[in-house]
C-alpha cells in the first residue's frame, strides 16, 4: 500500500566527493544525483518521508547493499518521472 507523500528529505553521502555545478536547474541536479545513486557513486542514502496521514518513514541504504541502492535509485527515478508527467499534463 502506498500513501500520498507530503514531504521528503534526501541525504546522500559521497565517499569520493561529487561534482555538481551550482548553475544547474533543480531538475538537472536531481537527475545527476539519481545517476550517481544508480552508478554506485553514493556511499549512503537516507530519506525521511512524511505522509499526509501523519505517518513518517525513514529509509536508509549504504554502499554495501548495492542491489538496494540501485532499486532505490530506480524507485526515485520512476517517482520523479511520474511527477514530470503530471507537470506536463497541468501545462496542457
Automatic annotation (TrEMBL):
It comes from the Bacteria. This is DNA primase. It comes from Sutcliffiella rhizosphaerae.
